[in-house]
Amino acid sequence: MNVIVPKSVEICTKLADFDYDLPKDLIAQQPLENRDDARLLILYRNTGKIEHRKFYEITDYLSDGDLLVLNNTKVIPARIRGNKTSGASIELLFIEELEENQWKVLIKSRAKLREKEEIRIDSKIISVNLLGRSEDGAWYVEFNKDVDIKRIMNKIGEMPLPPYIKRKKDSNALYSLDQERYQTVFAKKAGAIAAPTAGLHFSQNILKNIKTLGTEIEFITLHVGLGTFLPIKTEDIRNHQMHKEYYECSEEVVKKIKKTKEKNNRVIATGSTACRVLETVAVNGKAPQLSGWTSLFIHPPYHFQYVDILLTNFHLPKTTLLLLVSAFAGRENIMNAYEIAKSKGYRFFSYGDCMMII
């Protein structure tokens, strides 16, 4: 156990204040054999105290009457590789369906793109009309009406792993493993292009144990998109604009949150996505918007209204995710905890270990 004495509270607005160095060998490249074998760092945000546990011991920190909120979004196999008719390779990452046969897509190609492209995908020549660029660098594209993109995704699409997870072209076993493990066991509503990674640690057995304990479990949906993982490009963090992401939260969940807090029990948000949904709903007070698009950017200082405990992975430096956890626990607590996690060999990022901030 490590005890950290928090320093005086300081409001940091510079992006450089949320930077840290990380050895490459601490970036998890594949999941553990068992989901709930991940390490669990417990951080008490009021004192800075830290404990080191395993994820399967999470029930030691939950109580009868608490409410655990999970994000049931489902990652779609949104990355499709193909070739231009010239032979040049091309990679498409489907971000958002705009309307029938129209998508917002990130395109990676060394060859210059033309307004009307023909691409060979799944042994077929597909005509793609480039409609224009968005501010975030994506393309708006339109496919012929006889092209069923979702069918192609389900047939040959790959899980959209983040770029720090490396896969060789012949890594068929790992590609197959990613199809299962870059997905939570409770994934239900398809639409995300990245996993809500804090939820990856839950096994069906852990969920059963949590319910037996008397902790209630409820689900919200946030389809993880560009908003979650696009980098911050402004030196003053307050000038960053979050991209919108679609969410859903039922009236029943809101009622249970209020009931939980009235009884002085705790609401546990699993991941930044669940946290942002709950705080988005809370912002609207007595007339909450239960579904729609959220661009809520949580950074220090921020007053959390619904979330009492945050379950989260270890995040990349200078990201909106690191800012969110810093808002919840305090920047210096987080930076100290990250340094300790590094010294003890914790695994970082999507397939890495977990942190519970109490």
Overview of this protein structure:
The protein is an alpha/beta fold. It has 2 domains: 15-75 and 180-357, QueA-like; 79-157, QueA-like (Thrombin, subunit H), CATH 2.40.10.240. Helices cover 22% and strands 27% of the residues. The chain is built from 8 helices and 17 strands. The chain has helices at residues 149-156, 172-181, 204-213, 226-229, 251-262, 271-283, 320-329, 331-343; strands at residues 39-43, 50-54, 67-71, 73-75, 79-84, 89-99, 102-109, 116-121, 124-133, 139-143, 189-192, 216-222, 245-248, 267-270, 291-294, 309-313, 354-357. It has a 9-stranded mixed sheet. Strands 5-6-7-10-9-8 form a 6-stranded antiparallel beta barrel. Helix 7 crosses helix 8. The chain is globular and about 60 Å long. The two termini are 15 Å apart. The model is unreliable at 1-9 (pLDDT under 50). It is found in: Cytoplasm. Monomer. It catalyses: 7-aminomethyl-7-carbaguanosine(34) in tRNA + S-adenosyl-L-methionine = epoxyqueuosine(34) in tRNA + adenine + L-methionine + 2 H(+). Its main location: cytoplasm.
